[in-house]
Specification:
This protein is α/β, with parallel strands linked by helices. It is 45% helix and 8% strand. The longest helix has 25 residues.
């Protein structure tokens, strides 16, 4: 990002992945990926993987390239719509690794489990970007979380990867909550309990 700014090329900067919500403001194009490994067996009765999202000047180009790879990608005309989907994906990335490890299950088996719903509802109010964009509705968030989980039969999110990406997942949400009165553990008790069980230092 800094190199692009130095050269006046922010418009051509493309960020791909599942970064914190402010990321789309740093690039000319942002791509949010919803995908599953080709080794995951798909069934006719199972819901499709949610569409990936593209936002920005090069969004249509990337969407077309992803389509060639068999990955559905919707181009969002405005940042707010893109950010709602990014927030829902971040909620999935924050909750499912904790819940699957705690319940010793793959994610499609617990998509409606009370623990998953509790974790998602704890992080929901803090899924805003630094500019104050509204969080997605709880109904939208839970629907996206459920649909993505059901599209991944037999899959358990990697605990190792989640810990490596902690700062861009759970840690990012906690930092947003901490901008308030700092008592995030009181409003996110289940989140805090499961993070401590994972050996993550929580303050």
């Amino acid at each position: 990002c800094s190199l692009a700014r130095e050269r006046g090329r922010e418009r051509d900067l493309v960020l791909v992945g599942n970064g914190p919500l402010e990321w789309s403001a740093k690039a000319g194009t942002a791509i949010l990926l919803y995908a599953r490994a080709t080794s995951v067996q798909t069934l006719e009765s199972q819901p499709p993987c949610p569409s990936s999202r593209a936002y920005g000047v090069h969004g249509p180009w990337f969407a077309a390239r992803l389509a060639r790879l068999g990955i559905s990608c919707t181009v969002d005309a405005d940042r707010a719509r893109f950010e709602r989907h990014a927030a829902a994906k971040l909620a999935w990335a924050c909750t499912m690794w904790l819940a699957c490890d705690e319940l010793d299950c793959s994610c499609e088996l617990i998509s409606d489990d009370p623990l998953v719903l509790e974790l998602a509802r704890e992080v929901h109010p803090w899924l805003t970007d630094p500019d104050g964009a509204a969080a997605p509705s709880e109904r939208f968030l839970l629907t996206q979380l459920r649909d993505y989980s059901l599209s991944l039969p037999g899959v358990r999110p990697s605990v190792r990867l989640a810990r490596l990406e902690y700062g861009a997942r759970n840690g990012w949400v906690i930092s947003r909550r901490a901008l308030g009165d700092g008592g995030w553990q009181a409003s996110m008790p289940t989140h805090a309990r499961l993070l401590r069980a994972q050996g993550v230092a929580v303050h």
